[in-house]
Write a structure and sequence with these properties.
This is ADP,ATP carrier protein. One of its GO terms (cellular component) is membrane. By secondary structure, this protein is mainly alpha-helical. It has four domains: 207 residues, MFS general substrate transporter like domains (Growth Hormone, Chain: A), CATH 1.20.1250.20; 212 residues, Growth Hormone, Chain: A, CATH 1.20.1250; 158 residues; 143 residues, Jelly Rolls, CATH 2.60.120. The chain is 75% helix and 4% strand. The longest helix has 55 residues. The protein is globular, with a radius of gyration of 37 Å.
């Protein structure tokens, strides 16, 4: 219970816990391994080789670091991410294991190779450095941005607990077995963490990297020139140069503090065992503080902001050096030095690194990473070199400890000055960014949050409000709105006369009326007469917040119940309710009822108002809107009933889903989900018998409403059953083919393809809840990819058992042998059984297809001719028409439903040049002759399966030629243009398919012309 409460306090959601359960042990175990490694090699180097040589190994490390970075970058660009991360873990484990074996050999043989310890230091330092990068890279790759904000504190806490455990282990083991035994435990902990590490890569990372970036080669070719240009710009920009200076000086001061701490500690504890035990105590305390600080780090960062945080960190650095300098030669030096070392370590690695990122978030998105890597590369090498130089002042130049420590204090003061300069440069850069509008999205939002925390924000905002750029002024208004301070009200009221409606609207959104007087209220009421209805609506909404002047506000708002635009009326109704004006309620209800009766756009706004205010008394009126011809009205009515949890309408909505347009289908899913727990029982009652389109909506809604345990209990068996049903329906195509009904077999195959999309949509919705949504999405996209190799990789990832193993197997079975099911061999008995069974199927199209097959069979047996064209006959014909080639069976059915068969005598004029045309024709038999003007010369002949008149009938253009039915007669399907336009509006997929066909026709015409000219 305590853990659950703590996770809730941090903000962890239920869907995060699966990932936390797998990833947190990795950080804990690797955190132990890292600190055992660090404590071990630091103790062994300082005791067996000498802390006076630290400057030299740091100098060597500074030389190695750029080569290491280049090698790591080169390898990372040539290996897939999962393979790279596994290989790096193996390399690190191998290095630590070989070093542990070497130390064991030294212990057993008694031989001591002095030059081995610099090698131990450099290789172990490489492991510590790369292990940190590797684990955090994995965590960032696996977690979407919002999830990362929730789970990263838990991962950090896991690593901190690992550090505490490592400190305790170091104390116990070093006293009994020695510092080398501490190091030898590190590979064992890495091995223990490898199981979850490998599993996390397989389950989470592999699916996310299924489809590699195709343009990597081209990007690599341009990388060199871009990097060199960025390198020059870093030294030309005071802003970036200051960032590099801070990022260089801060670790250099840490290395100086570390050198002082290790050297002085070794003086107090010359024995290796005692030194290792004390180092273990410091490690335990250090990570205990890290864990405690982690609980408040987010709040501290939000309170200070990254720019002020750096100045605060620099001040603590200075205080630490001053404290150490003041206690030199005293008995308490070891305590002040240990405290200074711990604070500097914590602030550098837990606070300074994220704060340093503020310098780069204001740069253009496409250049940000490049500048970051260049700056970090320069700072890493420079920091180590500068740190080694500072250490050398004592180790090589012989300066006293007092001079060295006070040099560190002076350096810390310089760091404070740099941080303050960086803060001012950051503000200046932020203002430029705001003015130029170079940032978008979350990064700009975070930058704005930082911006409003700065002391100079008021002066800068005043400047921006008078800026000539409308976008800069609009952003300034947004900033003022985020501040939420009523003191800006006089400035905002000046926008009442601004010619830009966008700025007037933004000014109203930024206003706060907590301290507004009556005169101010009157000036705001003037916005109610604005020419722009959005401005009037926002003014009504704003007046609804002036509760201290409620009577006066009600007076102004009530007038807007008669406004000409329904959005303004809707906002007025909501404002009157917000002010609690009960005498106005009846007038509001009268307006709502009148607008609902009018239907159309006014009803849309009223449905939203009813939902927001919870006016259940209007539910009967809203139900009537479900039969409205306007799809927007129907969608808003469904959404309203979902918000009001009107579960009684569920059966009606389920019935209408089978023929609902795509947008209405999605709205219904959302409405079911908004109904909450009350919708679960009725949805479960109907789901098993629903057609697949309605089944899809129901399962997707239930996957949102049910918890994980009930999903596994109820939805997994349900979706597995649907997958089995789908395989059976697929076999209908094989049965019809065996019975000689090739056309119907093709329709059955088309329909089963459509049903598969619905079933898989429901299955994937369930899998999203049982696994990581981003991982499931990546696997799904991979299995649907056009590239065969990507599809195979997706199927392999699915076979790993992501989500639920049973459902994953069912999906895998559906995806692997789908095409073969439609062409399977079938006996006559099997064919008859299959057709008979499917005649009572839950899907209306499959029932229609099997009924048609049985009817054809009876007609043949009784030697009776069939009627000219039934519904499926039209669909079969339209399927072969190139103009409708891209349509689904369901869409073909809609077109067939408005198509009328006509037999037209020869010589009848179908359309006249320069005149409107209201219908398109699809030629079945015969020919249409085209002539131009009064000229009787035939310029073209259109034959079977050709569609004419589509442009003039759909878009209202005039006919560009004369069309006449040729001898002996013309047989066609005639489609009314208005009916087709409405159909396209409801089902955009039909319009997209026809558009593609038109493009294909134009392309063929261009090829023909080019061929003739050539």
């Amino acid at each position: 219970m305590m853990i659950n409460a703590l996770l809730r306090w941090i903000g962890v959601k239920l869907e995060d816990r699966r990932k936390l359960a797998m990833m947190t042990p990795i950080f804990f175990l690797c955190g132990i391994s890292e600190m055992l490694n660090y404590n071990g090699y630091m103790t062994l180097f300082n005791d067996r080789f000498g802390s006076e040589y630290l400057p030299y190994v740091y100098a060597a490390e500074a030389v190695i670091l750029p080569l290491e970075a280049w090698l790591m970058s080169w390898l990372a660009n040539r290996l897939p991410k999962p393979q790279w991360m596994r290989a790096m873990y193996v390399v690190m484990g191998s290095i630590v294991t070989l070093n542990a074996a070497a130390l064991l050999t030294i212990r057993l043989t008694g031989l001591d190779f002095g030059l081995y310890y610099p090698f131990l230091f450099l290789t172990s330092s490489f492991v510590v450095r790369q292990q940190t990068i590797l684990l955090w890279s994995l965590a960032i790759d696996l977690c979407p941005t919002q999830q990362a904000k929730r789970v990263m504190p838990v991962f950090v806490s896991g690593a901190a607990l690992g550090g505490i455990a490592a400190g305790l282990i170091s104390q116990a083991v070093s006293r009994s077995l020695g510092a080398d035994a501490v190091y030898m435990l590190a590979p064992l902990l890495l091995l223990a963490g490898s199981f979850n590490y490998w599993r996390a890569i397989s389950v989470y990372l592999v699916p996310l990297t299924l489809k590699e970036e195709r343009a990597a080669k081209g990007a690599a070719q341009t990388e060199g020139a871009g990097s060199m240009l960025m390198f020059k710009r870093v030294f030309q920009s005071p802003y970036l140069l200051c960032a590099v200076a801070i990022m260089t000086l801060m670790p250099a001061l840490y290395f100086l503090m570390e050198y002082t701490f290790l050297s002085q500690t070794h003086r107090f504890y010359p024995d290796e065992t005692d030194f290792a035990a004390f180092f273990g105590k410091v490690t335990t305390l250090l990570f205990t503080f890290a864990l405690l600080l982690q609980l408040v780090s987010g709040r501290l960062m939000n309170a200070l902001g990254p720019s002020s945080m750096l100045a605060a960190i620099a001040a603590v650095f200075a205080a630490s050096f001053v404290l150490v300098g003041a206690t030199l030669g005293l008995d308490m030096l070891l305590y002040t030095l240990s405290a200074g070392y711990m604070f500097v370590y914590l602030l550098l690695y837990y606070f300074a690194e994220p704060a340093n990122q503020m310098f780069f978030k204001l740069l253009p998105m496409q250049e940000r990473d490049g500048y970051r890597y260049i700056a970090q590369g320069i700072a890493a090498s420079g920091g180590i070199l500068l740190g080694a130089l500072l250490q050398y002042l004592h180790a090589g130049a012989g300066l006293s400890w007092a001079v060295l420590v006070w040099t560190g204090a002076i350096g810390s003061v310089l760091l404070v000055i740099l941080a303050l300069i960086g803060r001012q440069l950051y503000i200046r850069q932020l203002v430029r960014t705001v003015q130029a509008m170079t940032e978008e999205g979350e990064d700009l939002v975070s930058a704005l949050d930082e911006f409003v925390k700065q002391g100079r924000s008021d002066a800068v905002l005043q400047t921006l409000l008078r800026h000539e750029n409308d976008y800069a002024r609009e952003l300034a208004l947004e900033l003022i709105g985020r501040l939420g301070q009523p003191t800006y009200l006089p400035e905002l009221l000046r926008f009442a006369d601004d010619p830009s409606a966008r700025l007037r609207l933004a000014a109203l959104r930024a206003m706060r009326l907590e301290e507004a007087g009556l005169q101010t209220l009157v000036r705001i009421a003037a916005f109610l007469e604005d020419d722009d209805y959005e401005v009037r609506a926002q003014a009504a909404k704003l007046l609804g917040t002036a509760k201290h002047l409620s009577h006066q506000s009600v007076y102004f708002i009530r007038l807007k119940l008669l406004d000409s635009h329904p959005k303004v009326v809707a906002e007025a109704i909501k404002a009157l309710h917000a002010l609690g004006s009960e005498p106005s309620y009846e007038a509001c209800y009268e307006v709502i009822g009148r607008y609902l009766d009018e239907m159309g756009e006014p009803a849309v706004y009223m449905c939203r108002t009813i939902a927001e205010l919870g006016l259940v008394k209007f539910l009967p009126d809203v139900e009537q809107l479900l039969g409205d011809a306007d799809p927007a009205v129907r969608a808003e009515a469904i959404s309203c009933m979902g918000a009001l949890k009107h579960t009684e309408v569920i059966p009606w909505l389920l019935e209408g889903l089978e023929f609902a347009e795509p947008a209405l289908h999605e709205t219904t899913v959302e409405a079911f989900a908004r109904m909450g727990e009350e919708a679960v029982e009725p949805l479960l009652l109907y789901v098993s018998e629903l057609p697949m389109k309605a089944w899809n909506a129901t399962v997707r809604a239930l996957s949102v409403l049910l918890d994980e345990a009930r999903i596994r209990e109820l939805l997994v068996p349900l979706t597995m059953g649907a997958a089995d049903y789908l395989r059976t329906s697929r076999a209908l195509a094989a049965a019809l083919h065996a019975g000689g009904h090739q056309g119907l077999a093709d329709l059955a195959a088309m329909r089963s393809d459509e049903l598969r999309k619905f079933v898989l949509g429901g299955c994937w919705a369930v899998m999203d809840r049982l696994g990581e949504e981003d991982v499931m999405r990546a696997i799904r996209l991979a299995t649907e990819d056009a590239d065969e190799e990507v599809r195979e990789n997706g199927l392999e990832a699915l076979a790993e058992g992501a989500g639920d193993k049973r459902l994953a197997s069912a999906i895998l079975l559906l995806l692997s042998d789908w095409d073969e099911l439609a062409h399977a061999e079938m006996t006559d008995a099997g064919m008859q059984t299959m057709i008979g069974r499917m005649s009572a199927d839950r899907d209306p199209w499959l029932r229609l297809i099997t009924a048609d097959a049985l009817e054809r069979k009876e007609s043949v047996e009784m030697n009776e001719p069939r009627q000219l064209l039934g519904m499926l006959d039209k669909v079969l014909f339209l399927k072969e028409v190139p103009f409708f080639k891209g349509l689904t069976l369901e869409e073909l059915g809609y077109v067939a439903g408005i198509a009328e068969e006509e037999i037209i005598p020869a010589g009848k004029r179908l359309f006249t040049m320069g005149q409107p045309n209201t219908a398109m024709g699809v030629i079945m038999e015969g020919t249409v002759e085209l002539t131009a003007g009064n000229n009787q010369e035939i310029i073209a002949r259109l034959g079977p399966r050709y569609v004419y008149g589509e442009s003039s009938s759909l878009y209202g253009t005039l006919a560009t030629a004369n069309g006449i039915a040729a001898e002996p007669r013309l047989r066609q399907l005639t489609i009314d243009g208005q009916a087709m336009s409405k159909l396209i509006q409801l089902h955009p997929g039909i319009g997209i398919g026809m558009l593609r066909a038109t493009f294909e026709r134009v392309r063929r015409l261009e090829q023909r012309i080019a061929k003739q000219q050539g």
